[in-house]
Design goal:
With 479 residues, the protein is of the alpha/beta class. It contains 18 helices and 14 strands. It folds into three domains: 1-41, no CATH class; 43-176 and 211-373, TIM Barrel; 406-474, no CATH class. The radius of gyration is 25 Å and the shape is globular.
Length: 479
Amino acid sequence: MDPVTSDNGSRMNVVSNHDVLYVGSQKTTDQATISSDSIIPQACGKKRSELSTNWISGGTYVPLRDRIKKRIAAGVPFFSLEFFPPKTENSVANFFARLDRFREGNPMFIDIAWHFGSDPGNINSETSSSSVAAGCVDCGMDTMLHVTCCPYTKEQSIKHLEQSKALGLRNIFALRGDLPRQLLKYATSCERKIAYVVSRLEGENPTVCKYRALDLIRWIKEKYNDYFTIVCSGHPAGHPEAPSYRADLLYLKAKVDAGADFIISQIIFDGKIFKNFLRDCREIGIAVPIIPGILPIQSYESIRRVAELSQLMIPDSVLVSLESIKNNDDAVRNFGVWLAVELCRTLFTSGSTTSVHLFTLNQEVSSRRILQQLGLWPLSPVRALPWRTFGDIYAIRCKEDMRSIVCSVRPESYVFRTCVTIDWMNTESAVPVAVTWSVFPGSEIGQRTVVDPPLFRIWLLALGRNDLCDFLMRVDIIQ
């Protein structure tokens, strides 16, 4: 492993020893000089059971806030992942197939962005944020849903929260949300207010953002108490609309005081900025966990677009490095992986964090490479049974104790093929059909195929034992 330089310029020595990484200033060559308080657990050296997120224990859901506190106290690193909903109905199945592969890494949680283009609160749309989040829960992932209060009324926001609870979601990322497009071009909140008044005088009716994330957090606590784990965002360099860095810190503290359980930071590219932000938060009394947000750079254009939409400042050193390779997508992705890994290592070895939150942009390869190089992607043996057990609050799956043998061959397809299975062979009125996905009410991922039951029984009975076994291994028959 490459040597690391500490903040004071001294050379750092990183020595791997079984399950931990010992990190300390290299003032002598004697390992005894390494400080015991700078031990960072090496995730890849841990047993699978030690890295398990354990979000269901004894049939009871364990709140995300409690599991994060436990992992931090134990010094065991973890990661979380952010996705946005698939854009088209045809890409929904691919999204969940990718999600199933991400599940192998055992993330602490995943979150789904509140994407206005997908009609995010419409549970009848397969591509809506709410529907996708519900599907993630049914796939066995502890899921967080972004919920914004701009441009909604309080009643509409409460309705979104009620729906989230009904879908089995237990984690909410409380955000203000994006401003209306016509106001984004103005740099300050004062200019935006003036632009709003002018547009009203000219007969236009721009959307008003009456409420902020602080209001949403208060509503959640007032109505649901501790049912939801609440997350808020933090801006290590200060929010671009805040009058000052100090004012933004005080607003962040107000969100925590109102009930936010932990903070996920805006995308960072500089470890020192995050370290200073963490110090400043602690100095004003913010004691909740703060997880740094890391973006794997996928392309030159994408990072430019992300920076523009989020008003994110990208260090000149990163832009200069990208400029020379901007026309080589593979080189840009490799650079993005290298940059993210180095940044995370800096954060880990400095003691700033033991966790990272990856903004995946729904890209699998780069995110997985980063986690593997950090040792956060544990290797696990093939499971004897292809499903996970759930607590009683997840009634969709929690009562299952037996599944067809085909599930062990293709476990990733199971959740797309089942929610309610009827013994159609013994039911005259039952018609066997293809894949159904009841998390999206009234809609299907697969094309429905209707088969005449009597003829199908005759065909099955005419098959020999070997042919029948081969057929059952390849096809599921679901009502």
